[in-house]
Amino acid sequence: MMTSNGRILLVEDDVNLGSLLKEYLNAKDFLTTLEPDGEKGFRAFKRDHYDLCILDIMLPLKDGFTLAKEIRIQNPEIPIIFLTAKSMKTDVLEGFRAGADDYMTKPFSMEELLLRIEAVLRRTSRSEHAETFRLGKYAFDANKQLLVCTEKTINLTTKESDLLKMLCQHPNQVLERNYALKAIWKDDNYFNARSMDVYITKIRKHLNDEPAIQIINVHGKGYKLLRETE
């Protein structure tokens, strides 16, 4: 993870608590985005790449359970921690049904939250290292750098494979240009950015006979791999 322990989306309507949590997590090298309600939280999630979400339950406009379910549609793998003042068993169960990886009841210590975050990221990190992905009729083997279907086998270059793997790890989410450039090319200069555009074009051509898969440009941000739900 570049220059940080990861990116966290924090959705908390308590201004004081939200600010304290954001400041604390940033101090612990987590790049943290704070949003005050469920609708803004979901827009932020669709706009950027995150490694973990921390969601309050009682949010304006869209509650945390609904937000978590919508996030899970966009990315079934991303870990979610719920924060709530509620402690009833039914609320805890509802939280896990909505897709929670962990659940913390207010008040809590910042140190305990940090330990929970680290534990959840360790547990879920296996999905980040998945090497085989289904792309419609294609199977993408990142280790062997192959796109395979019944009709043909496509050998990918290392850069093509690395870039497609990053897109596959975050389907239906924005893969930020600078994030991908620094992770793959180690530098986000102009020439590397143009090179990445060329590789994206090549990947699109490889997949142009699979209508269930699209790679779109997100203006000013990066790219997004759109995969139809099977």
Which features would summarize this protein structure in a list?
single chain; 230 residues; alpha/beta; Rossmann fold; Arc Repressor Mutant, subunit A; 5-stranded parallel beta sheet; 4-stranded antiparallel beta sheet; 8 helices; elongated
Tell me what you see in this structure:
There is one protein chain. The chain is of the alpha/beta class and 230 residues long. The strands form three sheets. The protein has a five-stranded parallel β-sheet with strand order 2-1-3-4-5, sandwiched between helices. It has eight helices and twelve strands. A hairpin with a 3-residue loop joins strand 11 (213-218) and strand 12 (222-227). The model has no long low-confidence stretch (mean pLDDT 87). It has two domains: 6-128, Response regulator (Rossmann fold, 3-Layer(aba) Sandwich), CATH 3.40.50.2300; 132-227, Arc Repressor Mutant, subunit A.
